[in-house]
Amino acid sequence: MVLFADRVDAGRTLAPLLSFLRDAEPIVLGLPRGGVPVAFEVARMLGAPLDIALVRKLGVPGHHEYAFGAIGEGDVRVLDPNAVRIFGITEEQAREVEVTEQDALDRQARLFRGDGEPIDPRGRTVIIVDDGIATGATARAACQIAHARSAWRVVVATPVAPPGWEQKFSSVADDTIAFATPHPFLAVGRWYRDFGQVTDTEVTALLDPAP
């Protein structure tokens, strides 16, 4: 069963579930790259500013699927002390991973933002949008960065996620919203007719505030 024709359709389907946040004057952040077309439709419906959530999770050396922290724009760094302890990560190891991810973050910032600055989330409601949640690691990192940058409220929204997905965000998000939580879940792309790769050019165009 297909739920969405493409990411535009998914965004338009998800957006009404977030209408209750319109009066909060939120900021909508799309996770690169696939989350941006979805976030664009949400931001348009809410009349909210759109930005990109530039974050990099810090993967455990040798087990990159596990995150021990994240970095974001503005030299924000958050660590998960439990993960650091469990995996025995030294400060030197953490810094080595951080340097690599900082280079990638800087490249993304130059590519997608140019000379522009990220929208300041201080005291604002931030809606973090992705095209689907699987492990949720990147979205969790985006939540941590938003809180570290003094966002007042952080909401994670996605068209599709596995059942029970919200439990992964209980400590980092104030609210979680998904249009569908099918079982079995298997993969995000299963629920889209068109789940082709979103290009850097498409992302840049969607983020361009010019009419």
At CATH level 3, the topology of the largest domain is Rossmann fold
Q: Into how many domains do the coordinates divide?
A: 2
SSE ordering: HEHEEEEHHEHEEH
Major pleated sheet: 5 strands, parallel
Quaternary structure: single chain
Question: Strand-residue fraction?
Answer: 15-25%
Low-pLDDT segments, ≥5 res: none
| Mean pLDDT over the residues | 93
Q: Provide a count of the helices.
A: 6
User: Which sequence of strands runs across the widest sheet?
Assistant: 2-1-6-7-8
CA radius of gyration: 17 Å
Helical fraction: 25-40%
User: What's the CATH class label of the largest domain?
Assistant: Alpha Beta
Q: Decide which structural class fits the backbone.
A: alpha/beta
Please outline what is shown here:
By secondary structure, this protein is an alpha/beta fold. The chain contains 6 helices and 8 strands. It has 2 domains: 129 residues, Rossmann fold (3-Layer(aba) Sandwich), CATH 3.40.50.2020; 59 residues, Ybab, Chain: A, CATH 3.30.1310.
Explain this structure:
The termini are far apart. The protein has 211 residues and is α/β, with parallel strands linked by helices. Helix 1 packs parallel to helix 2 (35-46). The model has no long low-confidence stretch (mean pLDDT 93). It has a five-stranded parallel sheet with strand order 2-1-6-7-8, sandwiched between helices. A three-stranded antiparallel sheet has the order 3-4-5. Helix content is 33%, strand content 22%.
